[in-house]
């Protein structure tokens, strides 16, 4: 899954892709480099990001989506009205950091045939990184994902449409993120999405700024694959493809 941000304040590309044309070109490039899914988002969920109106979110996402709806496009949104509009415009997947928690979200997704990613986060993006606490981070994330998968299935979303994500960096310290990565395979029976690309966890581990986290991101990608991740949400598709090729060759040649 290749990330294309259409937010002006997204931390990892400094807003370079705010303009629809640039976002479309970037999406095409990621698809050529081997992304199976293009994830576009019009609301930055980075810690402390400014809120975006529904109208602005749609104005950012729709012009990009309509130009690339021949691709498998996932839309990163928490709003049922945005979900409805993008599904009508050809989105294949809803990637929701609120795990379809907004009133009406389950119903909108259930009425379509799209795939969905149900992500865990603790707290609100504005404040979630202020001293997050868990008694048992793996247990808590696992229970939450199970509850949301049950809710989704209860609403009529078939298991073949559902993926889950521990939400690295969403209300989690470095230690929480590492524990979740270490025990990724325990989290769910549903296919796992892992998003670690360029995240601040890597800044803490390597001391590097966001534009120098490629090597760390690739190490994380390999660890996520080893932990059983099915979908890697990344910025650097070409390089991550090479990691996948190496990992797959190793697996296939195993007795
Ligand atoms: C994630 C996401 C993630 C899923 C963001 C960033 C922050 N969606 N949206 N998983 N992260 N499913 O790109 O670093 O980890 S926004």
% residues in beta strands? 5-15%
CATH architecture: Alpha-Beta Barrel
The CATH topology label is TIM Barrel
Number of helical segments? 9
Distance between the termini: 29 Å
Given the C-alpha coordinates, what overall shape results? globular
How are strands sequenced across the largest beta sheet? 1-2-3-4-5-6
What is the tally of beta strands?
Answer: 8
Helical content (DSSP H or I, runs of 4+): 40-55%
Order of helices and strands: EHEHEHEHEHEHEHHEH
Mean pLDDT: 93
Q: Which spans have pLDDT < 50 for at least 5 consecutive residues?
A: none
Secondary structure category:
alpha/beta
Structure ligands: ligand 7PJ
The CATH H-level homologous superfamily: Dihydropteroate synthase-like
Largest sheet report: 6 strands, parallel
**How many domains, in number, for the residues?**
1
**Radius of gyration from the alpha-carbon trace, in angstroms:** 17 Å
Q: Determine and state the CATH class.
A: Alpha Beta
Write the layout of secondary structure elements.
Layout: E1 2-5, H1 20-32, E2 38-41, H2 54-68, E3 73-76, H3 80-88, E4 93-96, H4 105-111, E5 115-119, H5 137-154, E6 162-165, H6 174-182, E7 193-194, H7 200-206, H8 214-226, E8 231-232, H9 237-252
Parallel strand pairs: 1-2, 2-3, 3-4, 4-5, 5-6, 7-8
Helix pairs in contact: 1-2, 2-3, 3-4, 8-9
